[in-house]
Structure formats: C-alpha cells, structure tokens
Amino acid sequence: MKNILLGFDFSITGPSLCIHESNDDSFSFNNCRFIYITKTKKYADIFLNGQLTGVHYDGTGKHWTSRFDYLSDVFMKEISKYNVKIAAIEGYSMGSKNGRITDIAECTGILKYKMYKAGIQMIVPAPTEIKKFFTGKGSADKTAMYNQWLAETNVNLVELMAYDKKKIESPVSDIVDSYAVCKFLHKNKIN
Questions:
Q1: How confident is the model at residue 134 (pLDDT cuts 50, 70, 90)?
Q2: pLDDT score recorded for residue 128
C-alpha cells in the first residue's frame, strides 16, 4: 500500500499542495507532486513533466464564499485520487495584514471541513515550526526557505517558471512552503 502525505500552504491568493507518494517510509522530492493556484496566468502551467501544476484563478468578480469554495474544491478533487489518511496544513500567520486573518481562517476552515468529512486526519504546525524544521531558523524569510529548497531539490523554480519578481513571492514561495510542510509531516506524522 502506498504511503500518501499531504502538505498545504493554504491561503486565499496563492494556495499550494504538495502530495508525497511512496512505497516505503522514505521522503524524496522525486515522489512529490504539486498543485498550486495562482492569479498570474503565466505561472499557471505544467512544469517538470506534470510534477508541478499551476491552476489559474484570480477570483475577480466572485463573492468571497464562491472563491473559498472553489479553492478547496480544486484540492479536494486532486486529493480524491488518493487513499489519503493524514495531512498537514500550515497554521495561521499572525502577521497577516489588513485584518485578513479572519478571511484566511474562514477559507481554510472550509478546506478543513471538507477534509474532515473525507476522513483525513490533520495536524496544524505553526509557521515558525515549519521554518525552524526546514531551515534551522524559526524566523526564516521566504528567501531563506527558497535557498533551502534549492539545496535539497536542485530545482530552480525562478528559472523554470520564468519568475520575474525581484523577491521570492507567490507562487514560488507557496510551492516551497507546501514542500516544507509535507516534509515536516513526514518526520512528525501521527497514526
């Protein structure tokens, strides 16, 4: 039986899911698939022979409940292809701006509810736990996370995706974070 783990970096504007599938208890980037949602059309593409799949959705003109439902549905459709027992969703960042923490919580709550109904057990590590686990520093920024990704995977997402921003941001940072969350789950999984 395959060992399936899910790692989510879930947000309203740039959610990403890392699915790790293996026949044993090892963890490898080569056994990961990524689904991410982006509002930038040029990043909504298929990379690395389908290992990374970007879905375009900007939510323009959509009511927030419609957007929240859509985001969770994209991932639940993908998850339904696997016999998933456990997932990790990165906890909320208390540094969210403009009072958006409530919106993020409501959006994530819809996904958590759908996963609960599907019988998937969840852990919710704090962002600082993920950063410390992945980089050794709980206050690591997006660049430090990306540098660790490069060291582990040797996959330059900036070049691969023709990423044209000066700072590491969505969707690159989302993909990296979902990988780190999935790897954290692998090391700390519960039965």
A1: very high
A2: 95
Strand partners, 27: none
Determine the average pLDDT of the residues in 75-86: 93
**β-strands 46-47, 52-56 pairing:** antiparallel
Task: Name the average pLDDT for the chain.
Answer: 91
Question: 155 near 29, Cβ under 8 Å?
Answer: yes
Strand order in the sheet with 52-56: 46-47, 52-56, 32-38, 16-22, 3-9, 86-89, 121-123
Kindly report the CA angle at 167 between 186 and 92, in degrees rounded to 5?
Answer: 45
Residue type, 110: I
Identity at 46, one-letter amino acid code: I
Positive or negative, the CA dihedral 81, 70, 114, 90 is positive
Is 0.85 topped by the overall pTM? yes
